[in-house]
Amino acid sequence: MLEGKNTHLKLGDKEDLDFFVDFWNNLDYYGDYEPIMEQMTKVEAEKRLTDSSRASYFIIQKKDGANIGLIVHFGESSGSMTIGYAIGPSEHGKGYGTEALQLMLDYLFLSKEIHRVQANTDPENKVSQHLLEKVGFKREGVSRKSSFVRGHWRDECHYSILREEWKEPRLLSTRAR
Ligand SMILES: CC(C)(COP(=O)(O)OP(=O)(O)OC[C@H]1O[C@@H](n2cnc3c(N)ncnc32)[C@H](O)[C@@H]1OP(=O)(O)O)[C@@H](O)C(=O)NCCC(=O)NCCS
Question: Which long-range contacts (CB under 8 A, 24 or more apart) does 149-154 make?
Answer without folding.
Answer: 149/33, 149/34, 149/35, 149/36, 149/122, 150/35, 150/36, 154/122, 154/123
